[in-house]
Each structure stands twice: as structure tokens, then as C-alpha cells.
Task: structure prediction
Amino acid sequence: MRDSITLACSECKRKNYMSTRNKKKSTEKLELKKYCAFCRTHTVHKESK
Result:
């Protein structure tokens, strides 16, 4: 039911985090504001392939 996804930084495009989500309940792509160690700031991280 739950699929693993990677979260990529919207600024530097690096894949920083792994997460899971239920694809049946949330059909749109996940966006979270998380810390990017490469940018050294809190940025929006979007679901990537």
C-alpha cells in the first residue's frame, strides 16, 4: 500500500530524503519544507522519481 519516494531539493535538485506515502489517499506529488545540507537553508523538497 505504501510506496517509498525520494524528496529532492527544489533549489539544488539533490536528493536528500527518503519517505513513504499512500498513493491511494494522496494522488498529488508530495511537497515538504525540509533542511538541505548542501544549500544550508530550509527549502521546499518535492517528490522525485
